[in-house]
Task: inverse folding
């Protein structure tokens, strides 16, 4: 039997490539599951039709315009929110999400699209998360962790872009936004995240 909650809870992980968010999202998912909470781990771009389309295009190569990128990410998010996130929250589950609209604000914003415009567009189709963890690392650190995932000759260009993305992440404010130092040891970050999340969830356990 899983533990019952009074409401669904949405926890989002954000940060530049290689910051460690997928690692932490998975560790949190496993921890909550071991404590018998009913949770689900999702990511964006999603595995839906728009997400698949995004993954096929190499954004790294700037194959489409920033405006077209924005449109695809928003379509993917609208579908993922409607088909996966909302139903899970309605069933009072914990949704752990690896990237959400903060990624669009930071990544497409870093390509020159107005930040407020991206935010407003996303807020009309997305759900405000309970907690957003933004893991902060220097782009050189993030890139060195995932070096073999990307083409080496483009790393300098990528680092420059990720510096802009990082600056936008660092400028984001909100009572649900928690910034963490992603250069610490995996276990240290994990412990802090678990402490914050368990304290938050405690208020909603249905006894
Ligand atoms: P992201 O999802 O942010 O792109 P991942 O979580 O997939 O990044 O991590 C990228 C790589 O870095 C993985 O090999 C992972 O094991 C490693 N890693 C994650 N967090 C840390 C950390 N805090 N310190 C050192 N290496 C890490
Ligand atoms: P992915 O392979 O999922 O990378 P990661 O493990 O870093 O999450 O690809 C996601 C890429 O797409 C990543 O570089 C960030 C980018 N992205 C955007 O530019 N805008 C968005 O709205 C989202 C969700 C991702």
Result:
């Amino acid at each position: 039997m899983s533990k019952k909650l009074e409401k669904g809870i949405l926890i989002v992980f954000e940060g530049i490539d290689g910051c460690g968010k997928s690692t932490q999202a998975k560790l949190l998912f496993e921890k909550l599951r071991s404590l018998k909470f009913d949770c689900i781990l999702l990511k964006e771009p999603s595995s839906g039709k728009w997400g698949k389309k995004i993954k096929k295009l190499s954004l790294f190569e700037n194959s489409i315009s920033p405006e077209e990128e924005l449109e695809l990410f928003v379509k993917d998010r609208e579908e993922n929110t409607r088909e996966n996130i909302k139903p899970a929250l309605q069933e009072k589950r914990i949704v752990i999400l690896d990237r959400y609209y903060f990624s669009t604000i930071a990544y497409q914003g870093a390509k020159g699209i107005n930040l407020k415009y991206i935010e407003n567009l996303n807020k009309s189709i997305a759900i405000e998360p309970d907690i957003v963890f933004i893991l902060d690392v220097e782009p050189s650190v993030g890139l060195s962790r995932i070096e073999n995932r990307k083409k080496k000759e483009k790393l300098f260009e990528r680092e420059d872009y990720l510096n802009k993305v990082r600056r936008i992440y660092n400028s984001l404010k909100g009572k649900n936004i928690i910034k963490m130092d992603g250069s610490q040891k995996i276990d240290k970050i994990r412990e802090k995240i678990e402490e914050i999340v368990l304290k938050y969830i405690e208020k909603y356990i249905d006894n």
Q: What stands out?
A: The chain has one domain: 9-202. The CA atoms of residues 3 and 37 lie 5 Å apart. The helical segments are 21-34, 49-56, 66-90, 101-109, 115-123, 139-145, 155-171, 186-202. The domain at 9-202 is CATH 3.40.50.300 (Rossmann fold).
